[in-house]
Amino acid sequence: MKYLLLALMLAASPAAAQIKIENAWARATAPGSKIAAGYMVIHNQAAAPDRLIAASSLAAEKVETHVTFREADVFRMREVKAYEIPAHGAFELKPGGAHLMFVNLKAPFKEGAKVPLTLRFERSGEVKIEMQVGRLTDAPKHAH
């Protein structure tokens, strides 16, 4: 039984180990705010592309994958089904571009807090992380 469990753990580990998350962050939200955006860099170390197909958090009713685009002179957002993560590449979620939208927050995001987040990838399965909450006016903190 021990060997079977060990074999299963070793078989499951490589997929999750292929996805690395860097600089996961969000800005603090104003009191009463019901939405927030999350940002990060997703690295795919696998030889095959992957896709971020869903996200969830205990901090919000739902988490959606969004992109920002320009239509004439107006910036708009829309939900997308997934983000493509290239093989041996990276995909950046950043202000003014792709981002995670936390909808119907259960409580405001407060500076210094950590927000639990589960990312679900088509190939790699679930990856659990924590996003660091900065000041309302913060830009990302780069830690390599």
Walk me through this protein's architecture.
This protein has a single domain (about 1-135), classed as Immunoglobulin-like (Sandwich). It is about 10% helix and about 55% strand. It has one helix at about 1-15; strands at about 20-25, 35-45, 50-55, 60-70, 75-80, 85, 90-95, 100-105, 115-120, 125-135. The longest helix has 16 residues, at about 1-15.
Structurally, how many domains make up the residues?
Answer: 1
CATH class, anyone? Answer: Mainly Beta
CATH architecture: Sandwich
Distance between the termini: 40 Å
Helix content: 10-25%
Radius of gyration: 16 Å
How does the helix and strand content classify structurally?
mainly beta
What overall form do the CA principal axes indicate? globular
Q: Count of helical segments?
A: 1
- Give the DSSP E fraction (strand runs of 2 or more residues): over 45%
The major β-sheet equals:
10 strands, mixed
CATH T-level topology? Immunoglobulin-like
Name the helix and strand elements from N-terminus to C-terminus, one letter apiece.
HEEEEEEEEEE
Q: Could you list the spans in which at least 5 consecutive residues all have pLDDT below 50?
A: 3-8, 140-144
Number of beta-strand segments? 10
Question: What is the mean pLDDT?
Answer: 87
According to CATH, the homologous superfamily is PCu(A)C copper chaperone
